[in-house]
Amino acid sequence: MRLTLRTLLACLDRVLPPAEQQELDAKFAGSTAAQQLSTRIRRVIGQPGIPAPRLDGRGLGADANSVAEYLDNCLEPERLETFERICLESDMHLAEVAACHEILAGVARDPAATLPLDEAGRAKLLAALRHRSGEPAEENARHEAVENARAVHAALEVDAAERPRTETHERRTGWPAWAAAAVALALLVVLGVFLVQVVGGGRNRPAVGRQEPAVAREVPQPRAGDGGDDPVVAEPAAEVPVADAAVAAAPVDRAADMQARAADMEVAVADAVPAGVEPPHPEPRDAVPPAVAAASAAPVMSTAPVAPATPEAPPPAPTAIAGAPQGEAGASVPGESRESLGFADAAGLLVRRVAGPSRPAWEAVPAGGPLGDREDLVAPYGSQPDIHVRGVSIRIMPGTRVVVSAEADGTPRLEVVFGRVIVRASRPDARVAIAAAGLVGTVTAGLSGPVAVSVGLERVPGGDPALDPALVRASVIAVTGGIGWRQGAAGGAGVLEGIAAEGMLDARTAIAWESESPGIARVTRLDPPPAWVVAPQQPDRLQRSASEALTTRLAATGSLDQSLRELAADRRAENRILAAATLALLGEFDPAVELLCEASPGRTLEQRQWTKLEADVVPLALARGANASARLRQAFQDRGPHDKAESLYAMARGFSDEALAGGVAAELVEALEDAELVVRRYAFKCLCEIVQPAAADRLKYRPDGLPDLRREGAAWWRGQLEKGLIRRPGAA
User: Fold this and answer.
1) pTM over 0.70, yes/no
2) pLDDT at 54
């Protein structure tokens, strides 16, 4: 049995059979993450100030019914993992789930807990409630408050009697006032009776959703070849069939039902970490076979790697993995139709490429909408959408382009063109075929823990994008558990030297590939794993606001292109930045270049905004190939300052050491005093990338500073030039 959030709660509440309890106690003792989570559970349960979900809340994280559905195992499979992550990230939800589970466990162990309270027990409960809410604990305090209210009321009546008034006025005002007081008193009486009934009779009601089992449990059967001694553990909720009418009508054994529900496996404790928190590094949960063997320990298969798809052209059609077993990963998950490849999650904006009459266009994927047989997808900046393909969940990080399809045997196939993704599945037998530049293969096991895939494009400064291809680096990372990896595609193509054709990859290790050595891969140790894998950066407040503005405009117009272009002219800078960066991802660079070159009052970007937008748009455009770089160059000519286009494009490409020694360094220093703000910004950016000065030296010059301060900063850089220090560290 795996140590999951549900099984951890069952272990802490001691509702498991003795053998399973002993097994989980041993795993709990060896898991640092489980012990820390247990301490956190005890802490949040003991804090009376933590609120509970609203009774009228809406949405998975705000609806109190989500807790009841989770405890009753009625939560939809596609929402189960999301809800458990919410519990691990939110003290409120964790306290609610843990406290409710503790109460239900007590009810399962002691049926007498649901018997009606006697008079003494009811009085004790009411006294405890008054103590918790800060109300007077003694009856004389209530009488004192009533007497004070009566005294105030009598004083008001005396004061009113002493005022000169006519009989008509008294008849007109006295009767409505007394009627209003009577109505208020009646309402208070009704409210008091209702409160007593709720407090006194609340323990007589059974727990929410516990009357009938929601799903049928898998009957333990002997495994093939083991003599029938080891029963089969129930599969996760996503794989459990709905109970038939006969089972639903059967009487419920609460203790047995609690024990059966505790065996479900959804999200491993060690795999789920609150956002922004560096997780501990406990030992792997299960023993993992040795890492992928090196070429010296396994037969070397020297074949040419599969040519990766370029960022400009769609990747080739999917091919079947050679020797893959048929039908192992072809089952669809709830929410998919038989005709669809999968579906998109409700959270996060996702964009797909569609065929147009003249050229390919892009459209937004509807929340929860189905995916076609083959989808070319882009996740805009500020969004981290999830897609579900044949039982495999794929989180697409911002600024990433992927192509998803299926193999001939139904295995999901994921090709990362550029960017980063995190893949996982709830089924222990799930598989996924991956193509990440020159890394082509299949993850055959271990998807219960996250598997990260990245493809990065880098350029040598000063190189011509049309002649010098970008340096491509790809990696497949096993984050918290070992994974099985089998190299190659159909026909044996794509098998690399340096690693075995098939083997296991340990936790916190990665298979790395570089385009400089296309026929070789290597295994590297990552300790700790990259930050984007264990704690992906969440969008800040302004990015969330811009994403919401884009979603609202998209709902109003129905056109992605129109919504982005309207938002690119918005008065808010964060909205313009998001729209321009998204259009650049889709191959349209004019809005981004126009925003980078904007210098009019009220529309100019702050320095940090300009730096972030330039870093998101320009390097990727230059690395994507000749077509994208040509469009970027044309955008500088059309949208940039007059006669500055070639200079800006040259600074965007960067400069080699030879060019710096040939006089470019002096030109960059002189550009610090150029009349155009975008020229000064690009010159300062180039100088900082070349010299890598200290933080204090960076502050000596600001491209958007006052003229006198700019001149002083430029003079400091001119002094560095005269000393021969405008060069890369280590360059002659």
Assistant:
1) no
2) 66
Q: Quick check: 162 pLDDT over 70?
A: no
Q: How confident is the model over 312-327, as pLDDT tens digits?
A: 544 443 333 233 333 3
Q: Which two tokens stand for residue 220?
A: 């333990």
DSSP state of 400: E
pLDDT at 146: 59
CA gap 269, 94 in Å, rounded: 13
Distance CA 421, CA 440 (A): 15
Q: Quickly tell me which residue has 């495999």 as its tokens.
A: 392
Predicted pLDDT of residue 313: 47
| Whole-Å CA distances, 702 to 56, 240, 375, 698, 706 | 52, 62, 45, 8, 8
The owner of tokens 């969440």 is: 538
What distance in Å separates the CA atoms of residue 63 and residue 68, rounded to the nearest whole number?
A: 10
Cβ-contact 709, 657 below 8 angstroms:
no
Nearest partner of 321 among 407, 446, 406, 391, judged by Cα: 407
Residues near 571 by Cβ (< 8 Å), separated by ≥ 6?
none
Mean pLDDT across the stretch 28-48? 82
How far lies 426's CA from each of 392, 423, 431, in Å? 8, 11, 11
Structure tokens at 719: 């002094």
**Secondary element (H or E) of residue 522:** strand 521-525
Residue 647 dihedral angles phi and psi, to the nearest 5°: -65, -45
Q: d(Cα 629, Cα 622) in Å, to the nearest integer?
A: 5
Single out the residue of 725, 727, 687 nearest to residue 703, CA to CA.
687
For 541-561, how does the pLDDT look when each residue is reduced to its tens digit (9 = 90+)?
Answer: 888 889 889 989 998 998 999
CA distances from 341 to 314, 330, 332, 649 (A): 18, 10, 8, 42
Neighbours of 562 (CB within 10 A): 13
Q: Is 408 helix (H, G, I), strand (E, B) or coil?
A: coil
Q: Count H helices, E strands: the chain?
A: 24, 17
d(CA 109, CA 113): 9
Rg (CA), the chain: 33
Tell me, what's the pLDDT at 129? 65
3-class state of residue 502 by DSSP: strand
Task: Provide mean pLDDT across the span 365-380.
Answer: 90
699 backbone dihedrals φ, ψ, rounded to 5°: -75, -5
CB 354 within 8 A of CB 372: no
CA distance 28 to 36: 10
- Residue 485: name the closest of 440, 438, 428, 429 by CA: 440
Q: Residues 6 or more apart from 276 whose CB is under 8 A from it?
A: 535, 538
pLDDT at 466: 84
Could you tell me the two tokens for 546? 């811009």
CATH 2.60.120.1440 for domain 295-534 = yes
Instruction: Give the model confidence (pLDDT) of 424-472 as tens digits.
Output: 998 888 999 999 999 999 999 999 889 999 999 998 888 888 888 899 9
Q: Where are the domains of the chain?
A: 5-113+209-271, 295-534, 541-722
Amino acid identity for residue 659 in this structure: A
Given the structure tokens 């553990």, which residue do they identify?
233
Report CA 11 to chain centroid distance, whole Å.
28
Cα(567)–Cα(439) distance, integer angstroms? 38
Question: CA 578, CA 399: separation in Å to the nearest integer?
Answer: 11
Q: What angle, 0 to 180 degrees and rounded to 10, lies between the N-to-C axes of helices 573-585 and 560-568?
A: 140
Q: How far apart are CA 718 and CA 696, in angstroms?
A: 17
What is the rounded distance in angstroms from the CA atom of residue 670 to the CA atom of residue 688?
15
- For 16, list phi and psi in degrees, rounded to 5: -95, 160
Token pair of 398 as six digits: 């911002």
Q: End-to-end CA distance of the chain, in Å?
A: 61
Residues sharing a CB contact under 8 Å with residue 76, sequence separation 6 or more, in sequence order? 334
